[in-house]
From TrEMBL, chain A:
Gene Ontology, cellular component aspect: membrane
Keyword entries, A-Z: ATP-binding, Cell inner membrane, Cell membrane, Membrane, Nucleotide-binding, Phosphate transport, Translocase, Transport
Gene3D superfamilies reported for this sequence: P-loop containing nucleotide triphosphate hydrolases
Keyword Transport part of the UniProt annotation: yes
Protein name, per record: Phosphate transport system ATP-binding protein
One of the GO biological process terms: phosphate ion transmembrane transport
Gene Ontology molecular functions: ATP binding; ATP hydrolysis activity; phosphate transmembrane transporter activity
Automatic annotation (TrEMBL), chain B:
Coiled-coil stretches: 148-200
Keywords attached to this entry: Cell membrane, Coiled coil, Membrane, Transmembrane, Transmembrane helix, Transport
Subcellular location: Cell inner membrane; Cell membrane
GO biological process: phosphate ion transmembrane transport
Source species of the chain: Halomonas fontilapidosi
Name of protein: Phosphate transport system permease protein PstA
Length: 272, 515
């Protein structure tokens, strides 16, 4: 049995590709979500492959950020949200009664559009998640902090001023610090919600390089408005429109040879 | 500060008039503040300066001696008249004299004129004739001065010994006796010693010749201090002025609040404000957190928020009535019935006191703290909250570790506003616990050290009382000014403390204000 199943021969499916349950990290089936009576996601079904970069693209309001936030249950905060369907992380339903939401969020980390370091020192920002878990010796904690900052390619820039305020860093550094902070708690999946949209081109390149390096041991899901960015860093791309999954396939295929007219219009910029 | 920053970014050309208008209003506000403070400072602090004593000879041959207070035009416009503070109230029935300037033949400042500060009746002014001891020994002239000075030092130490004995030996014993302790013999000894001291103080008197030539005997133990203002150098006067200011700050009031110091009132004001802050901060902050972070943001929450904001506009006397009805009579009365029934019918908590006053003011300032904290919480970006949650923090951890530290400066702003409002509030206090005279401060060495049920003095009420309820308003006026200045300073110090604290907290992270 192959891990990757090519579906290009079946014309009624939106997906060009499917992954076997063994190869996927997240499995979404029949997921619908509405804010009050306003639907945001309609009956989505897709699997997200492990240790790959998957990009969600689509026009504003298409539901790609909403989908991302389902994966670590940030919608729990909003009592207006109505959701049906299932989302499995490594085979386990994340909305199940036995799932502790704090534990889930440690396994599924998230980086937001605008850098949001806490008003603490650089060191304390990275230590934040570790301190919530507790039970770590000071030494072990410092080791993890160094490892996380190195993984986020920030260590060399901040190693001499770990006690300085995180808000004294530049925007790009702040975003990498936020990534380091998320990596420190040891997630399996990293959700990135337009992580470079507020950054300058050089910082953007650094973040993209970081994303490519991280996929050796992490599953990454990236939401972006930037088509080139999706093409540069992702292995698979899903195109969403009006809360529906329009097309999902290997990035190369989707960008060079989209199967549907809607996809082609969007990626070539001919959207109404 | 903010205004200064704004003025750096100049208004564009053509809006010059607007800029002048804005700058003018700032200048006007500053001037008004400055005028207020200098009036209080000059009138209040000037009172402690030992002014020269003028010996005034009138056309008709009469003489009077006193300190010139002011000179005003006569009501009929025919000239001017002067007000002299001539003291000797028990002798003449008044301590003031209005003299038309036209009736004055000569004014001199003889150096031998003496001012006696007395325990009662205010000051006495005249020439020292003689000092007589109990045994009839009589000294005159320079020798009298010397012996008087010695006697004053002696009296001061006797007074101190008496006060120490009374406060540290007798009063605790009396209390122990009431509680059934076996201390009667100790008390008798102490009382005997007290009587001895009292007797030692009563020895002797001095003879004074007033300006009008009357001879007058003044018992020595009535005299607090002796001065010869006309013979003093400016430096001596400065020392006396400093001592006067210090006594004003450190002593209790005398003579129905028209003389003496205001220490119990300072203490009461500060203690009450601090208790109020301790009570209002947790309640206000918790309410704001509930409204902003926990409650469902629906119509009901909006309604509650509007109600809270409107509470800030309720007149303070209404809170006073509420405090009297609910805290004093309701809760205090019940407490008395349950725990202090031995003392009934005299109330313990069922009457105004420090606790009820602090609680009433806490209630009064609660909306201020809630509104300020809520505004601080609303300013924190949601990304900060989501960032914490995304790292696996529970809502409580998110609140305590990220949101509350970021909202601390806003909370302190609320407390600053609350302190500023509470420290100057007088009307509700008159109903719930302030006293005209409570020389015992509510903190002492007796268990439980802080006596929440006691009545206390307050600077604001002290001003009101001294200005309108004293026998001699003219004499109390300088003290009213000085007390008002002090009240402003106390509020300033309380505010500065809170501002310093806020600044300290908000700069802990250097660039925090960059956003």
């Amino acid at each position: 049995m192959s891990f990757v199943q090519d579906l290009s021969s079946s014309p009624d499916s939106a997906a060009l590709i499917d992954f076997s349950p063994e190869a996927s990290s997240l499995a979404i089936r029949g997921l619908s979500l509405a804010y009050g009576d306003k639907p945001a996601l309609r009956d989505l079904t897709l699997r997200i492959p492990r240790h790959r970069v998957t990009a969600f693209i689509g026009p504003s309001g298409c539901g790609k950020s909403t989908l991302l936030r389902v994966f670590n249950r940030l919608h729990d905060l909003n009592d207006e949200v109505v959701r049906t369907g299932e989302v499995r992380l490594e085979g386990e339903e994340i909305h199940g009664p036995a799932v502790a939401v704090a534990e889930l969020r440690r396994r599924v980390g998230m980086v937001f559009q605008a850098p949001n370091p806490f008003p603490m020192s650089i060191h304390d920002n990275v230590a934040f998640g570790l301190r919530l878990q507790g039970g770590l010796s000071k030494r072990k904690q410092d080791d993890i902090i160094e490892w996380a900052l190195r993984s986020a390619a920030l260590w060399d820039e901040v190693k001499d001023r770990l006690r300085a305020s995180a808000w004294s860093l530049s925007g790009g550094q702040q975003q990498r610090l936020v990534i380091a902070r998320t990596l420190a708690v040891g997630p399996e999946v990293l959700l990135l919600d337009e992580p470079a949209s507020a950054l300058d081109p050089i910082s953007t390149l650094k973040i993209e390089e970081l994303i490519r390096n991280l996929k050796t041991h992490l599953t990454l899901v990236l939401v972006t408005h930037n088509m080139q960015q999706a093409a540069r860093v992702s292995d698979y791309t899903a195109f969403l429109q009006d809360g529906e999954l329009v097309e999902y396939g290997p990035t190369d295929t989707l960008f060079t040879n989209p199967r549907l007219r809607r996809t082609e219009n969007y990626i070539t910029g001919r959207m109404a | 500060m903010r205004l200064a920053k704004r003025s750096r970014a100049r208004l564009p050309r053509g809006e010059g008039a607007g800029a002048w208008l804005a700058a003018g209003s700032v200048a006007l506000s500053l001037l008004a503040l400055l005028a207020l403070l200098s009036l209080l400072a000059i009138r209040g602090l000037g009172h402690f300066w030992p002014a020269s004593i003028a010996l005034v000879a009138l056309d008709d041959g009469r003489q009077l001696a006193g300190e010139q207070v002011r000179e005003v035009p006569l009501p009929d416009g025919t000239g001017r008249e002067r007000l002299y503070r001539i003291g000797n109230r028990d002798l003449d029935g008044t301590r003031w004299a209005w003299v038309p300037v036209s009736a004055i033949a000569a004014v001199s400042h003889p150096p031998e004129l003496m001012v006696l500060e007395r325990h009662r009746w205010g000051e006495a002014i005249g020439r020292l004739v003689a000092v007589e001891s109990e045994t009839g020994e009589r000294l005159e002239g320079q020798a009298a001065r010397a012996v008087l000075e010695n006697r004053m030092t002696e009296l001061a130490s006797l007074r101190q010994a008496r006060d120490t004995l009374r406060d540290e030996v007798v009063l605790p014993r009396v209390q122990a006796l009431q509680e059934g302790g076996d201390v009667e013999r100790e008390l008798a000894t102490a009382n005997a010693r007290l009587r001895e001291l009292q007797a030692a103080m009563q020895a002797g008197h001095l003879t004074l010749e007033t300006a009008s030539g009357e001879r007058w005997q003044v018992p020595l133990d009535q005299i607090l201090r002796v001065r010869y203002p006309n013979a003093m150098s400016p430096l001596d006067k400065l020392v006396v002025w400093g001592e006067g200011v210090w006594r004003f700050l450190s002593e209790g009031p005398r003579a129905a609040n028209t003389a003496g110091g205001v220490w119990p009132a300072i203490f009461g004001t500060v203690l009450m404000v601090m208790l109020m802050s301790i009570l209002v901060t947790p309640f206000g902050v918790l309410a704001a957190i509930y409204l902003n972070e926990v409650a469902h943001q629906g119509r009901l929450t909006r309604l509650v928020r509007i109600a809270v904001r409107n509470l800030a506009g309720v007149p303070s006397i209404v809170y006073g009535v509420f405090g009297l009805g609910v805290f004093v009579y309701g809760i205090g009365g019940s407490l008395d019935e349950w725990f202090f029934d031995a003392a009934l019918p005299s109330p313990t908590f069922g009457t105004g006191g420090l606790l009820w006053a602090s609680l009433t003011l806490a209630l009064l300032t609660l909306p201020v703290v809630i509104v300020a904290t809520e505004e601080g919480l609303a300013r924190i970006p949601d990304q900060q909250r989501e960032g914490a949650l995304a790292l696996g923090a529970t809502r409580l951890e998110m609140l305590t570790r990220v949101v509350l530290p970021m909202a601390t400066p806003a909370m302190l702003t609320g407390v600053i506003l609350a302190v500023a409002r509470a420290a100057g509030e007088v009307a509700p206090l008159m109903l719930v616990g302030v006293a005209k005279l409570a020389p015992q401060v509510p903190v002492d060495a007796d268990f439980p050290f802080l006596h929440l049920e006691r009545k206390f003095m307050h600077l604001g009420y002290h001003i009101f009382d001294a200005a309108f309820h004293g026998g001699d308003v003219q004499a109390a006026m300088p003290l009213v000014y000085a007390t008002a200045l002090l009240l402003v300073l106390v509020i300033l110090v309380l505010n500065l403390t809170a501002i310093f604290l806020r600044h300290h907290l908000s700069t802990r992270h250097g660039a925090l204000s960059r956003r």
